[in-house]
Write a structure and sequence with these properties.
Layout lengths: L1 H8 L4 H21 L10 H6 L3 H13 L4 E4 L6 H8 L3 E6 L2 H10 L6 E5 L14 E4 L21 H5 L8 E5 L13 E7 L2 E8 L9 E8 L6 E7 L24 E5 L1 H5 L3 H8 L2 E4 L2 E6 L5 H4 L9 E11 L2 H10 L2 E8 L6 H8 L5 E10 L2 E9 L3
Parallel strand pairs: 1-2, 1-4, 2-3, 4-5, 6-8, 14-15
Antiparallel strand pairs: 5-7, 6-7, 8-9, 10-12, 10-13, 11-12, 13-16, 15-16
Helix pairs in contact: 1-2, 4-5
Length: about 400
């Protein structure tokens, strides 16, 4: 509001003032992804939504650098977040976008890097050999013009198979996709890596050729940024995507048993990558149900797995189990009333109960709070009353 009044008082043209206000709002929103760099950039609404977080874009750039790539074609540059990261590590960049305004904004954002060229063009039409490109990156659009999410990879813009086909010309191909992409149909010759930042699964990446130095497979990269430092942890399996069953998939079936003294919820990237079995092994625990990604243990998990006092990111969030009971609204309501619980955090897996409906049914009153986990234990609906463990 203060900016709008200042622009009006200074006699700025109303259209220019409106554009300035829009950029101010978009920059404020983009800071969550790009930090202070956002203050010197221009944006579109779609560009902010699709822009890669600065931390993750830097990891993309390092992957290309480590693979020996010298010039990257960013086929779907958007406002240029990934292209900025590529140029920032010294790579030559040819960035393209089919939208004229978006391409102009990317050119402005990349103005400090003479080694970066931006064109308004269809990236798939590039002659990669003539352009001396030895690395390709794409982040296909996964929403319609109306903002609806697209789930069919064949309907992405550009379609995934059209981008994958480029590895016949340039082996070093990387593609960013949504973390909810189904495993079925993904190429077996890629490393598919799911990435989470502070518990939020932000993307999956498909990496081909020299961009996957450990070979094909699936992996989870867990990043935590608390305290001004970044901690990371990677879990990996050489078993390719699509080679395991649905649900919390495993290379080997982990043990299943009754609730112990502790409960762990694996990071979302670990679950998406089908690496819950590795989390079970590292935590020294067992599953509550063979189809649900909750791990229980009789002793606290090792620091390397849960992040306590460790330089590595935790692969799971831990809770101390206080009580376990069969699910029933009447029983649970009486339990919470006896303990003066007026606020509850409700977590759930493997149940149709909705937290909002249950909270209304419980009619909570009291000064204390509790955390409830609704899930199946050996096929039976149960409630675990837990308290979060420190990290």
């Amino acid at each position: 509001m203060a900016l709008a009044m200042r622009l009006r008082d200074d006699g700025v043209d109303p259209d220019l003032a409106a554009a300035a206000m829009t950029q101010s709002r978009l920059r404020a929103k983009a800071r969550a992804k790009l930090g202070d760099f956002a203050d010197a950039m221009l944006f579109t609404p779609d560009g902010v939504e699709q822009a890669t977080r600065l931390l993750v874009a830097a990891l993309h750039a390092r992957r290309y650098l480590a693979a020996g790539v010298t010039k990257v074609a960013d086929l779907t540059s958007g406002i240029g977040a990934d292209a900025l990261a590529f140029a920032g590590v010294g790579l030559q960049v040819l960035a393209t976008d089919i939208d004229e305004v978006t391409a102009a904004i990317a050119a402005s954002n990349l103005r400090a890097f003479p080694e970066a060229e931006v064109r308004c063009a269809d990236g798939l039409a590039l002659d990669l050999r003539a352009e001396a490109v030895d690395g390709v990156y794409a982040d296909p659009a996964r929403r319609t013009r109306g903002g609806q999410r697209i789930f069919d990879p064949g309907a992405y813009a550009p379609p995934l198979d059209a981008v994958w086909a480029l590895r016949e010309q340039v082996p070093a191909v990387g593609v960013k996709v949504g973390p909810g992409i189904p495993h079925q149909g993904l190429p077996a010759d890629a490393e598919t890596q799911w990435v989470s930042v502070d518990g939020d699964v932000v993307e999956a990446g498909l990496w081909f050729g020299p961009l996957a130095p450990d070979g094909p497979g699936r992996s989870a990269l867990v990043l935590h940024t608390a305290g001004g430092t970044t901690r990371s942890r990677t879990l990996r399996s050489a078993v390719p995507v699509g080679a395991h069953a649905a649900g919390p998939a495993y290379d080997e079936a982990p043990p299943v048993g009754k609730p112990g003294a502790y409960l762990y919820e694996p990071d979302g990237a670990v679950i998406r990558a089908g690496l819950v079995g590795q989390a079970v092994t590292e935590l020294g625990g067992r599953l509550l149900d063979p189809t649900i990604a909750y791990v229980t243990t009789d002793a606290p998990g090792p620091s390397a797995a849960v992040g306590t006092g460790s330089i590595e990111a935790p692969i799971a969030t831990g809770y101390r189990v206080l009580d376990v009971m069969p699910f029933g609204v009447k029983r649970l309501k009486a339990y919470l009333r006896e303990r003066g619980v007026g606020r509850v955090t409700i977590k759930k897996r493997g149940t149709a109960v909705t937290p909002e409906a249950l909270r209304a049914q419980l009619s909570l009153k009291g000064p204390t709070e509790a955390t409830l986990v609704l899930t199946r234990v050996a096929g039976s609906q149960q409630v675990l009353v837990v308290e979060p463990l420190p990290r």
